[in-house]
Batch of 2 targets.
Target 1
Amino acid sequence: LLWPTEFSRDTLTLCYDASFGDTTIDASAFLNTSELWRDEAGWAENDNTKAWVAVVTGEAENSGFNIIANTVINFDVEHDLTYGIDWVDYETSYRADAYSGTAQVSSEDAVHVGIFLEDMIDLGNGFTLTPGIRYDQFDITSKVVDDDFNDLLWAMAVSYQATNNLLFKLSATELFKGPEIGEVFTGAGLSDKENSDIQAESGVNTEFSFAYQDAVLGADALSFGATFFQTNIDDYIYDYAPIPNGGPRDYWKDNIGEMEIDGYEVYWGYQLGGFSALITYSNAESELSAFSDYATLEGARLDRQQGDTVSARFDYQFTDIDLDLHWEVLNVDDVKSALDLDGASVDNSKDGYTVHNISARWVPATMPELMVIVGVDNLFDEFYASQSSRTGVSFHGRFGNLFLTDYEPGRNIKATIAYQF
């Protein structure tokens, strides 16, 4: 069914920065309002669904502010303090006015406040220690739960500048995330089931990285490095958890177990004259250790999990004619079919793809106010679906096979001309 739909968004952002001696302050406030209108008259084409015919309206309003301050204090060692506050208010409302005269309405809201302090301590001899602390308060009123959650979190990072060209870093950060309210596009929680026992997610993210850069092997700059990470999320929240002892299509939002995500990224860079190149390789895998009530989900991966990814970008600057050329390549490997969360039920394997984008940028030295950019995205018109979207085939008892894959755009030719007065 094709439903006439309008979805608009307006954003207002105010920013402020100032300096007071050894202290700098950056502050911003924002208001983001999205509005939905949808005519679902198409339901009338089927006697089994004509009772659902309605005109849908909805609104999501997100507002908030953040203040970040930085102060440098010199005692026996230097302390670089970063501290501040984040405050975000989420509000959603939904209304479906049926042609029969009845109406279904839903509204939800949540407020998230975080207060934080971080101290980067220069210990000398190339060592830097950065402890941090954060308090989070999350209040939510939704169809699922009406509750407040809070946690006191810590973070610690250690970096070592072995030489002017080599840096090592090790860090660990505690995580916190409360249950989310429903999106307006899907009813602002209208069909969600109550679960007053749901808990906020918590966990720890650990990272180790190193970076090297030097003018060696004939290059102006040769660089390489890697980042290895492990993320453990306790009380992972799944929006479509099967209700214990429920029917085959009974789902709710609930904590289903511990999700572990392991991955790494390595890169190599080269620069000589006007030429530069950067090649990266990344891999990440996820696995759920399920609670006993959700044993059928044991070992499930995240549906949005990517295949092994190689990206490369090449740039060349023709300084004599003020022209920059850019070429980037993205290659994503296949993902084999396996148990996942919220993926397709018949075939959830993912096909790999390779996409090329090219562009040219001209800013004449005699007229720096002018900028001209031309480019082609998906140069070879690859027919592919991003693995970050839902893909595959599911089976529905009434409609049969549902082909979920939403393919990305083909070749796109674009040009931009800008002039700054």
Note: The chain is about 0% helix and 65% strand.
Target 2
Amino acid sequence: SWIIMTFFGMLPFILSNEIPNVTDAFFESVSGFTTTGASVLSEIESLPEDILFWRSFIQWIGGMGVIVLTVAIMPLLGIGGIEFFVAEAPGPTSDKLHPRIRETAKRLWFLYFGLTIILIALLYFGGMNLFDAINHSFTTMATGGFSTKNASIAAFPSAYIQYVLIIFMFLAGANYSFLYMAFKGKWRNVWKMDEFRAYLYLVIIAILIIMFQ
């Protein structure tokens, strides 16, 4: 599935002649779907908007996982679906939120999509144009980092935008099982989980180290 999606993802780069080299186009597609964030491109802003959107979109799809999406929309893959889900669900653990794996995948994608919409709105009302807000929301929720600007977020000299992105990067880096429990109001269950506390403490320690360097 990953190989097929990666080859499919590189076609717009090649057909548009924006990345005519097959190796480079393949690298860009792999980087997108795996949310690695590395790029062969040095001049981002010269690309047409449809290619910029495609880069962000494949990263957004990869952020939750191709297989999780497939399990959510194709019930015919119910057999063996749990193995696919465990391999693809964001976070070291894959606690089932619902007895049926397809329902779990759907709920995770609903949460992922909902957070993306909220982030788009916050960025748009914070001064970004709609195109940039959509693209940066896609890549922030995927924790990948593709941007529509050469300077990335530095191209937006706004403390509001930076703080919003910091908050959503933190949320996107967490296990989505935790986010789902928080969404359901089960805060005690979230705090009892060692993984979430370790994640929070590590982020705080990293922030303090960087601040006082």
Note: The CA atoms of residues 96 and 160 lie 35 Å apart.
